[in-house]
Design goal:
The chain is of the alpha/beta class. The protein has a single domain, classed as Vaccinia Virus protein VP39 (Rossmann fold, 3-Layer(aba) Sandwich), CATH 3.40.50. The chain is 35% helix and 21% strand. It has helices spanning 4-21, 42-47, 66-73, 86-99, 133-142, 163-171, 206-215, 226-240, and strands at residues 56-60, 78-83, 104-108, 118-124, 144-157, 190-196, 244-253. It has a seven-stranded mixed sheet. Helix 3 links the parallel strand 1 (56-60) and strand 2. Helix 6 runs antiparallel to helix 8 (226-240) and helix 7 runs antiparallel to helix 8 (226-240). The longest helix is centred in the first third of the chain and has 18 residues, at 4-21. It is globular.
């Protein structure tokens, strides 16, 4: 079983890798989404779905704070970003100072350390990295105010365990793959809506995936980035095989 240290090291390495190849202003997410409207990233799309004005917001798995700053600019009352990566939190705090975003704060913390109630909780491609997805999901639900909303966007596994899904878990230190069965709610207390965003993805061709897999032969055996790259390609492969769905789920606490 993976540990909190494994996940922290994974995100630290991911931060270092993205810092090498991506501009500071670009949201660090490997997926390319083709929106039918003017949205340029997943967070702008999500803000069109919910009202941030005057809300207290938790960005659970905030990365370097890209989404948190966008929430703050959309009139959020207070935004708290959490990550298990010390390097991500350091960058987020540096950007907060640079942008003078007084209604943002960033903390080194995991999902299971949440106690303060929030009006909105965003989990964008972060819940799958929880050591215990069902436990973290329950914690997030409990942290909602009445009429509060939990917004999850993630890779939902929609197939049977196979060699590729096992390798994905190994390379990305996942104890399990998130599936819809992990999102269990009491219908009397919560309302849930779901949207399949997979059609917005620009899927790689099987040939491109094959070429990228061959590329790994040139990596040093113990390269800390090798697993990150390989995990991303394995995820792409599962999408091409229609064993993954990129889903948006909004859970509203009604009492």
């Amino acid at each position: 079983m993976n540990t909190a240290k494994d996940i922290s090291q994974l995100y630290n390495s991911l931060f270092e890798l993205e810092a090498k190849f991506k501009k500071e202003a670009v949201y660090p997410i490997h997926k390319q989404l083709h929106f039918p409207e003017h949205f340029t990233d997943i967070y702008e799309f999500l803000i069109s779905k919910v009202d941030c004005n005057g809300k207290t917001i938790l960005d659970a798995g905030c990365g370097v704070g890209f989404g948190s700053f966008l929430f703050a600019k959309n009139q959020a009352k207070q935004v708290t970003g959490i990550s298990v990566s010390k390097k991500e939190i350091e960058r987020a705090n540096a950007m907060k100072t640079k942008l003078k975003m007084e209604n943002c704060q960033f903390q080194l913390a995991s999902f299971d350390e949440i106690s303060t109630p929030f009006d909105l909780i965003f989990c964008v491609e972060s819940l799958k990295h929880s050591l215990d997805i069902q436990k973290s999901f329950a914690t997030l639900l409990n942290a909602l105010t009445i009429n509060g909303q939990l917004i999850i966007v993630d890779d939902f596994f929609d197939g049977h365990e196979n060699t590729f899904s096992q390798q994905l878990k190994e390379n990305w230190h996942l104890n399990s793959l998130i599936s819809e069965k992990d999102i269990q709610i009491d219908g009397a207390n919560f309302r849930i809506s779901s949207e399949d965003l997979t059609p917005l993805m620009r899927l790689k061709s099987p040939l491109k995936i094959h070429i990228q897999m061959l590329f790994f032969r040139f990596f040093k055996k113990n390269s800390r980035y090798k697993k990150l790259f390989k995990g991303g390609i394995l995820l792409d492969y599962l999408y091409t095989k229609k064993q993954m769905k990129y889903k948006l789920m909004i859970i509203t606490k009604i009492q």
